[in-house]
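FAQ
Q: What does a multi-component entry look like?
A: The components come first, one per line:
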Amino acid sequence: MIIQLDLQSDVPIYTQLVNQIIEGIASGRLQLGEPLPSVRSLASDIGVNLHTVNKAYTILKQEGYIQVHRQKGVVVDPVAMPPITPEFREKQRRELRPIVAEAICRGMEKEELLRIVEEIHQEISRKE
Amino acid sequence: MIIQLDLQSDVPIYTQLVNQIIEGIASGRLQLGEPLPSVRSLASDIGVNLHTVNKAYTILKQEGYIQVHRQKGVVVDPVAMPPITPEFREKQRRELRPIVAEAICRGMEKEELLRIVEEIHQEISRKE
Amino acid sequence: MIIQLDLQSDVPIYTQLVNQIIEGIASGRLQLGEPLPSVRSLASDIGVNLHTVNKAYTILKQEGYIQVHRQKGVVVDPVAMPPITPEFREKQRRELRPIVAEAICRGMEKEELLRIVEEIHQEISRKE
Amino acid sequence: MIIQLDLQSDVPIYTQLVNQIIEGIASGRLQLGEPLPSVRSLASDIGVNLHTVNKAYTILKQEGYIQVHRQKGVVVDPVAMPPITPEFREKQRRELRPIVAEAICRGMEKEELLRIVEEIHQEISRKE
DNA sequence: GTGGTCTAGACCACA
DNA sequence: GTGGTCTAGACCACG
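Then the predicted structure of the entire assembly, as tokens:
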């Protein structure tokens, strides 16, 4: 799996990593149970520090996306993804809210906004 | 207009301020040309540092939402909101992407996601 | 509040820190809403690295014991402690189980074990 | 005797092994003097590394739970279990302390905690 | 001055 | 060789 980082971005590297791995799972490029590269190898591959990758993995583990298996190393959770909890819905709305507000301000029609969300959804889904 | 801050949030206060003012404009509670409180008074009203309010206003000015006059004070841009530029579209997609990916991972149907976006859109729009 | 670390212990320093702060809260020496020392000052006080303290605070934050307030710094959660969730009960049993088993093996009577737990409970509670 | 391992747990496998064997003795499923499987066979049975089983057995031997004979193989100590030493009491208190503290923090009544310990005690004891 | 992030380098426990 | 822990030192965002 290819990781694309923007080192200039104000989004922390570990967050970019988390997002890309989640997108990898969403797109099906990373299957349930599939092994992920070790902290060290991924770190050297993408040219960041070991601890940065470690932090990303730690977050993914806590949120229930991956497991750290004592024998197989790091793997995508083989059973299932984290469920849609009330906390998740809240977080999702909190994140979407300013995006929607900004779109409204700039005069973007609701239909266009929905179309964009749908487009992104398909972009991610069709990447197999 | 009422500002609701979450001081425990990992979202910086100035960003929360920016978001809430943008939502205020989106909802119509803040009209084009309408005056905003001065840096000093807003800061004391909501109990945050002068710098924090200043930073929020500066960002809003740079993005074209408000104007800062030496004499008239701070007002919502009287003419128009910033347009939908290619840069805006890019930023918007960049922000939406991880949200959509996470929704897919957790098994949220595309229709439900779209419905949520639509709900948020209406929540913001119908506010007075 | 006095922190006692055992640098020779196989228990990680950040875990010892977490435990001692939790005990501080349990004993009432740390009140709800009370401020904790900054990462840096605590680190230099007890002679460990800043990151070690940071990790302890991060865990306490995630578990709901403390809050990182953008203005007041780090404080004990002013509202309440984390509740007794099913996950907590499970974890608690998982931790108690080997301790109880070992006590049985060595011939400790159930009554004595219960008395020891009760003693520890009072030791912690009466420290005000 | 059935061994249940959790390979995702943060508890080392050898520790899980030690705990389960001790619980086996505590429950009476493993009698004094009863033979245990060889390192090799146990390792292949439960699918872990030889070193892991070896480490578990070594610890159990050091603590006085089992004996390792060149010819007879591994057996539960035929004479007696290790006694209640001051060191054991200290270790036990050290382990119980953070568990009790956490229970207090979360508002668990002392009676409930004692009841849980008692329950676990009976769960282990009544197993055959 | 605070916490957050990142890097570099080291040692250890684990399997 | 893996992840886990700890240290040291640095820069930045925030208020």
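Q: Is there any commentary attached?
A: Sometimes. For this entry: The first strand of chain B starts at residue 35 and ends at 36.
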